[in-house]
């Protein structure tokens, strides 16, 4: 994973991440994840990490315009894991857990957006809105580097009173408050997935 020269004049390679997938328990979700990882255009390759919830999880794979670093908005695939008790029974194992998020608007309820846990504790909030599909086997240091990238979260000059007013505004339906909070977790620099695919086990 690295920042792209087309986006950043001075890209830095962070390294490679290897993910082990629970294909026997969540077959449809794992197949979709592998297909997205294998796509040359419109999949995970060339897409960016959209959110960094420091100390909790990082998020990538959201659908939108490909040129903007998103997974193709037209991508769709069936997924029966949404009604699979074994798949739904998987729970976060903390640090390095990989999950596909449930997304409104898709008929099957599971889209392309995935998260990687950066917390050693189990996130019940993440479990409620996602389906666990695997775990990071190699490259957790890369995930940790991404987790530390600065976001647009307000600095110390943003007082607790101002935060409270933002939350109140959101509760009252003020969309500006919600948009402001969404920007807090956006990374200040581009974190691009330069390549992705499926590792074939060695025959040795």
Alpha-carbon distance between the two ends: 28 Å
Overall pLDDT level: 83
- Content of β-strand: 15-25%
Low-confidence stretches: 1-6
Supply Rg. 17 Å
What topology emerges from the helices and strands here?
Elements: E1 18-21, H1 27-38, E2 49-53, E3 57-60, E4 63-64, E5 71-72, H2 85-88, E6 97-102, E7 110-117, H3 124-128, E8 130-138, H4 140-147, H5 160-171, H6 175-184
Parallel strand pairs: 4-5
Antiparallel strand pairs: 1-8, 2-3, 3-7, 6-7, 6-8
Describe the 3D structure.
It is a single chain. The protein has 204 residues and is of the alpha+beta class. It is 25% helix and 20% strand. The protein has six helices and eight strands; from the N terminus they run E-H-E-E-E-E-H-E-E-H-E-H-H-H. It has helices spanning 27-38, 85-88, 124-128, 140-147, 160-171, 175-184, and strands spanning 18-21, 49-53, 57-60, 63-64, 71-72, 97-102, 110-117, 130-138. The chain has a six-stranded antiparallel sheet with strand order 1-8-6-7-3-2. It has a two-stranded parallel sheet with strand order 4-5. Helix 5 crosses helix 6. The protein is globular and about 40 Å long. The model is unreliable at 1-6 (pLDDT under 50).
């Amino acid at each position: 994973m690295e920042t792209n020269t087309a986006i950043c004049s001075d890209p830095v390679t962070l390294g490679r991440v290897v993910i082990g997938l629970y294909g026997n328990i969540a077959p449809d979700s794992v197949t979709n994840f592998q297909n997205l990882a294998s796509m040359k255009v419109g999949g995970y390759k060339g897409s960016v990490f959209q959110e960094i919830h420091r100390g909790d999880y990082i998020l990538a794979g959201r659908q939108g315009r490909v040129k903007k670093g998103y997974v193709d908005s037209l991508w769709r695939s069936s997924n029966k894991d949404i009604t699979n008790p074994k798949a739904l029974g998987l729970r976060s194992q903390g640090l390095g857990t990989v999950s596909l998020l449930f997304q409104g608007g898709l008929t099957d309820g599971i889209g392309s957006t995935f998260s990687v846990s950066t917390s050693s504790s189990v996130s019940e909030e993440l479990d409620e809105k996602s389906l666990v599909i695997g775990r990071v086997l190699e490259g957790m240091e890369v995930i940790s580097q991404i987790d530390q990238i600065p976001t647009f979260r307000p600095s110390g000059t943003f007082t607790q009173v101002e935060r409270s007013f933002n939350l109140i505004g959101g509760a009252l339906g003020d969309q500006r408050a919600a948009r402001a909070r969404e920007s807090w977790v956006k990374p200040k620099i581009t974190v691009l997935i330069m390549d992705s695919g499926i590792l074939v086990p060695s025959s040795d």
